[in-house]
Amino acid sequence: MDKKLILLFSHQLTPQQLKDANEKLQCNEIMYLPKELLYIWQNITPETDIQVFKDFLLKNGRAGDYILIQGEWGTTYNMVNFVKENNMIPIYSSTARKVIEEKSGSDNRVIKTSIFEHKGFYRY
Q1: Alpha carbon separation from 42 to 56, 74, 104 (Å, rounded)
Q2: Which residues, 6+ apart, have CB-to-CB distance to 70 below 8 Å?
Q3: What are the extents of the domains in the chain?
């Protein structure tokens, strides 16, 4: 059976995440949120009606599909439970962060760069 990875997630997947989804999760299709839903997901508050995301998953997902859920904590919790109730598999992406600080200019301003490395997808 073909597996799908549906993203309730604000970012584009990195090449390493795409490879992991294909090889470890064996997903041959990745579905991003449409622009209008992505905008809502990126600006969600605890007061936002999240039924649109549930409807999207019911329309596009099926039992055994992976759903990558990361966002506002309360909404994430709600969606993880919804996904489990509908026999889909809620997952999150874990990363390692390396921070590099550099001094710049005559006033020694500190420039901080964060480098994120994908470590894997894990079930909630």
Answers
A1: 16, 14, 32
A2: 8, 9, 10, 76, 92, 93
A3: 3-123
On the question of pLDDT at 83 being above 90, the answer is yes
pTM for this prediction = 0.86
Share of the chain above pLDDT 90, in %: 79
Cβ neighbours for 59, distance < 8 A, ≥ 6 positions apart? none
Count CB-CB contacts under 10 A for residue 88.
20
Q: Look at the chain and count its residues.
A: 124
Q: Distance between the two ends of the chain, CA-based, in angstroms?
A: 22
Enter the tokens of residue 78.
């709600």
